[in-house]
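Readers of this paper often ask what the protein records in our data store actually look like. An entry from our holdings is shown next, in its original layout:
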Amino acid sequence: MKTLIAAAALTLGAVAAVSPANAAALIGGTTVVEVTAPIGALGLAGATLGSASVTTEGFFSFPVTGGDLAGLAGTIEHSGSGVRLSSATANVDLRNFLIDTVQQLIFADVSANGGAFGNIAVFSFDVASLPSLPDLFDLSDPALALILTDGAADALEGVFGLTAQLNGLQFGLAATAPIVTPLPGAIGFFMAGAAGLAALRRKRTAAARVS
């Protein structure tokens, strides 16, 4: 029982645990990212790779290509798309983003100047920091902060020869709207997430009052 509670606490900010048997397969959807890091000031530029695109608002857009969710626990895949960060002398490609909602990490296949780094965790996030659950799904106004992991920050600093310390830098703001099937799975997806996020906020509020 303690293990189940611990796993639920990790799932997108302590969403309700749902049996894997009830997981809903993802059949489409979109994830968008608004870059907030000062990449221009660092001498870097960003470009899309594969099936990624740029929206009219200037957000990077990545098609959801698979994964599965039980409540809000699971993975959201973005195979075949990515983003390139480049300078005058080097480039880093991030492809095939995978959102792991249990670990609250985003993984990508990373390569630099044609050489592979491997599949690494590039961003962390905390859904419980959002004002409300619907903000997670609002593609017109992404609000979920994506924080560079230490590994990703060190890699970028090394490849581009940056003197700026990127550890803990907010790279951007994200929103995701995966399409799940069947329809009852979609309903459970939102209900479980809303209940879990509300429970976590009550817990944090109570802890703040005690302290």
